[in-house]
Write a structure and sequence with these properties.
mainly alpha, 70% helix, 2 domains
């Protein structure tokens, strides 16, 4: 009963108030030129409140979805996850190609910086969610998640370009393609969330700016002589992008 009353107060106060004023006007024979403007003002106020309330609810749903996407990205594509692009890049140490190792070492150094940044992002997001300040910094979090994803996509794109030019084991290609299927699902959801937020929060990010990834096509297996069984020790010095 309390819940029903709350719904009536939230959504039905305007028609109820208009009905009550109209009945009082009939009972007490109030002048129509006085009642009509009052009813009109109440109706306008009710419509404005309804629009604002609907917008806030839409914004809250979009905010929740953004937080879920950020958490999903952290669980599935960061850290030691098997679907992390950095984990996939690490498998290149098993290919007998020193130039690939140089690039993988450079990515290792970048991964540490990237992980530190994204861990800080998640910590701040969770803290502001607990304190109820997330909606205040919604645009900031959206921009930061978008920036992090764009930087992450650069590593994905570089790996894809390398894999098209250098023969790598089919197992690595299969692992990358599994990553692609899940990453593209994330990218599609992120695009939808950006489109929703753009309507209710007037954000400046465009949905197409979140790109999807193409799968790799395995050509022929890498000879066993070109695969390494033991992964070499990793260093922190960098290397160039392999072409």
């Amino acid at each position: 009963m309390v819940r029903v009353f709350g719904i009536i107060v939230t959504w039905g106060w305007c028609p109820i108030l208009i009905t009550v004023l109209a009945l009082l006007g009939v009972i007490y024979q109030w002048p129509m030129e006085l009642v009509a403007p009052v009813l009109g003002v109440v109706l306008v106020i009710g419509l404005v409140v309804a629009v604002i309330s609907a917008r806030e609810q839409h914004l809250e749903r979009s905010s929740q979805r953004l937080k879920q996407l950020a958490g999903y990205f952290n669980r599935r594509f960061m850290g030691s996850s098997s679907l992390s692009i950095f984990t996939i890049i690490d498998t290149l140490y098993n290919v007998d190609n020193p130039q690939l190792w140089d690039w993988a070492r450079a990515c290792d150094m970048s991964q540490r910086v990237f992980n530190t940044w994204y861990n800080s992002f998640i910590d701040r997001l969770e803290s502001d969610t607990r304190t109820g300040r997330f909606s205040i910094y919604l645009r900031i979090y959206l921009n930061e998640l978008w920036s992090a994803n764009n930087l992450y996509y650069e590593f994905v794109e570089q790996f894809h370009d390398i894999a098209e030019k250098v023969e790598i084991p089919v197992s690595i290609i299969d692992q990358f393609n599994r990553f692609v299927m899940e990453y593209n699902t994330f990218a599609s959801s992120f695009q939808d969330t950006i489109a929703e937020l753009k309507r209710v929060a007037r954000t400046e990010i465009e949905p197409p700016s979140v790109k999807t990834v193409s799968e790799l096509v395995a050509t022929k297996p890498v000879p066993k002589s070109q695969e390494r069984e033991v992964k070499p020790s990793r260093t922190t010095h960098g290397g160039g992008y392999y072409m």
